[in-house]
UniProtKB/TrEMBL annotation:
Protein name: Oxidoreductase
Stretches assigned to the GFO/IDH/MocA-like oxidoreductase domain: 134-248
Alphabetized UniProt keyword annotations: Oxidoreductase
Signal peptide: none
PANTHER family tied to this protein: OXIDOREDUCTASES, TRANS-1,2-DIHYDROBENZENE-1,2-DIOL DEHYDROGENASE
Keyword Cytoplasm: no
Gene3D superfamilies from the UniProt entry: Dihydrodipicolinate Reductase, domain 2, NAD(P)-binding Rossmann-like Domain
Organism taxonomic ancestry: Bacteria, Pseudomonadati, Spirochaetota, Spirochaetia, Spirochaetales
MF terms (GO), sorted A to Z: nucleotide binding; oxidoreductase activity
InterPro entries: Gfo/Idh/MocA-like_OxRdtase_N, Gfo/Idh/MocA_domain, GFO_IDH_MocA-like_dom, NAD(P)-bd_dom_sf
Domain Gfo/Idh/MocA-like oxidoreductase N-terminal: start-end pairs: 5-123
Family: Belongs to the Gfo/Idh/MocA family.
Oxidoreductase in keyword set: yes
Length: 332
């Protein structure tokens, strides 16, 4: 079977650091073309990371009939624009998280691609890792009793003013960059959508981006999730789920290494056990799962409504951080 030819919009540091090496093992995907608004930069990037073709504009790549699907790791504020352009070109789309800047844009992107009959998926790689699949199975099995809540922490330290994550106009800030993970994982483990949220946020006086956020997601019936995220504090991450009969935790929930087993720690009345899941690269699993859906012409593995729902929660968190009050989560 011929591999699907992938086009990448942008000379992404994320792609070169985390995706390029795993994809060398893919039996389904060929990194075929890369585009930049700087042709020389694209040519150098293509040579370094093994792309056959390079283009000096995103539009030129999208017009290449040999490109089967595109991966969009562009800055957040460009996602909707290039989702639409890729859809116009008839290309299937795997777009980095967050899908768009807000739920209204996410719903617009989903509707646009549906009308163009083009598959669209948000790239949340963590859900493909065996440690998360096992954690989800445990949470849903009843082994923890009734899951009443989750807690999450995700942080890093980045004070570079030129970094895209610190540029407000490009969709930078903690909630959009890493809060999307803590919201997504809470919804995933709870198996439900929060009804209302409350958040407290600290903003950088120069960047104008949110740099530290603490939040509560209220799922109703006494169930809630809490999380803390930060972009200017010590790097740390952890997710825990609490039930009436036990709890589980994942020590490296999001930036999991691809060359060591995943670890899920489960505690119940009879004791604590440490579950090691198979060694796997979550980016390879994510990209291959997306490609497999394209090949088999089935639904993409992460439904696009999930992206819309995640953005609706983030919208409510931004509103709460501004109002200082509980804010309802809109349904789109």
């Amino acid at each position: 079977m011929d591999k699907l030819r992938m086009g990448v919009l942008g000379c992404s540091g994320h792609y070169s650091l985390r995706v390029s090496t795993p994809l060398k093992s893919s039996l389904l995907i060929e990194p075929y073309a890369v585009a930049s608004r700087d042709a020389a930069k694209a040519k150098k990037y293509a040579k370094t990371w093994g792309f056959e073709k390079s283009y000096g504009s995103y539009e030129d790549l999208l017009s290449d009939p040999n490109v089967d699907f595109v991966y969009i790791p562009l800055p957040n504020h460009l996602h909707l624009q290039y989702i639409k352009k890729a859809a116009d070109a008839g290309k299937a789309i795997l777009c980095e998280k967050p899908l768009c800047l807000n739920a209204k844009e996410a719903a617009q992107a989903a509707s646009y691609c549906q009308k163009k009959k083009v598959p669209l998926m948000e790239a949340f790689m963590y859900r493909f890792h065996p440690q998360w699949i096992r954690a989800y199975e445990i949470a849903r099995s009843g082994e923890l009793g009734e899951v009443m809540g989750t807690g999450g922490v995700f942080s890093y330290d980045n004070k570079d003013p030129s970094n895209i994550r610190n540029i407000a106009s490009a969709g930078g800030g903690a909630l959009l960059d890493i809060g999307c993970y803590t919201v997504s994982s809470a919804r995933y483990l709870m198996g439900a959508e929060p009804k209302k949220v409350v958040a407290n946020a600290l903003r950088d006086s120069a960047f104008k981006t949110d740099t530290y956020v603490s939040a509560i997601l209220d799922f109703g019936n006494g169930k809630s999730s809490t999380f803390t995220i930060g972009t200017q504090i010590f790097p740390y991450q952890r997710v825990t789920a609490y039930g009436t009969g036990g709890d589980l935790s994942i020590d490296v929930p999001f930036n999991m290494y691809g060359d060591v087993p995943g670890v899920v720690t489960v505690s119940q009345g009879v004791g604590t056990r440490v579950i090691q899941t198979e060694i796997a690269d979550q980016y390879l699993l994510e990209f291959d799962s997306f490609a497999q859906a394209l090949i088999e012409k089935t639904e993409v593995p992460t439904p696009i409504q999930d992206a819309i729902n995640n953005m609706a929660v983030i919208d409510a968190l931004f509103a709460s951080a501004s109002s200082g009050k509980w804010e309802a989560v809109a349904k789109l």
